[in-house]
Specification:
about 280 residues; alpha/beta; six-stranded parallel sheet; two-stranded antiparallel sheet; 10 strands; about 30% helix; globular; binds zinc ion
């Protein structure tokens, strides 16, 4: 089956230009990533906020929260859309681990089912899994029920893999309207820093976009489907560390923000601050 994914930057220097992207899923070997995750039952770390109590998804257990947010630091949330990808996502996870950085992966339901090991590895290593729809349609073309189906199917697919409640949604293309907002149960998360990685495919350019746009409380958009994004991530994380940023999940960033603590279903965030209504 040939799957065409459309990826777009909505804000920032990308000029809302739409784009491309490929992926021939039949050409992607599902066994190419040899990540294995074992159950973790005696982890002394504190409880993760969205840990599920009930059983399901085999005997795999969501680990406890890995890293506390340091209130004395500046914070930035990293987010990766459109994966998992059998080659790029493991590289991204390796680099995040090197810097003790954490990220939110807004996955597609029709890819998540192909790579359960990667979904588990994300959770196991303290990252967050968000919902980026089942097949990346334009939500503005869909009815409210169709939007709910796109989101619900993806949640169910993730639940088959790991006992984990997905609390954050990012619509494809960051597209938001009244139907989208009423169809979503939790906060909607877009971004404030668009690295345009899908467009430039250039590691240096990705770094420069982060340097140009980042500020305390920012949410950075990248895609874990391009090798060039993984190529640029090391320098981005190194630079953010030098600038005194702690790199955290979107959920942790919003949880830390007093403003976001009162968030309601369908409310939109571009950073740790509420979007102007
Ligand atoms: Zn996307």
């Amino acid at each position: 089956m040939f799957v065409v994914l459309l990826v777009m930057c909505v804000a920032g220097a990308c000029n809302s230009e739409q784009l491309n992207m490929q992926t021939n899923s039949s050409a992607e070997g599902k066994t190419a990533d040899n990540t294995t995750i074992s159950s973790s039952s005696n982890d002394p770390r504190e409880n993760r906020g969205n840990q599920r109590k009930e059983e399901g998804a085999g005997d795999w257990t969501v680990p406890k929260k890995l890293t506390a947010l340091d209130p004395k630091k500046k914070h930035v949330a990293l987010s990766f859309d459109d994966g998992p990808h059998h080659l790029v996502t493991p590289r991204v996870l390796d680099i995040l681990a090197k810097y003790n950085a954490h990220a939110t992966f807004f996955v597609l339901g029709n890819r998540a089912g192909d790579y359960p090991e990667l979904i588990r590895r994300m959770i196991q290593e303290g990252h967050e899994v968000g919902n980026h729809s089942w097949s990346h349609p334009r939500f503005s073309d869909l009815s409210q029920q169709e939007i709910k189906t796109q989101i619900g199917k993806t949640d169910q697919e993730i639940a088959k893999t790991v006992n984990y409640d997905v609390s954050l949604v990012r619509p494809p293309y960051g597209e938001i309207n009244d139907r989208v907002q009423s169809a979503v149960d939790g906060p909607i998360v877009n971004w404030s820093v668009d690295t345009c990685d899908w467009k430039s495919r250039n590691p240096q350019s990705i770094l420069e976009e982060v340097q140009r746009q980042v500020e305390d409380g920012a949410i950075i958009l990248m895609h874990d489907i391009y090798p060039s994004t993984a190529d640029g991530l090391d320098k981005v994380l190194n630079w953010l560390g030098e600038q005194g940023y702690q790199v955290v999940t979107v959920g942790d960033l919003l949880e830390f923000s007093t403003e976001a603590n009162s968030s309601k279903a369908g409310e939109v965030f571009f950073s740790s601050k509420k979007a102007a209504s």
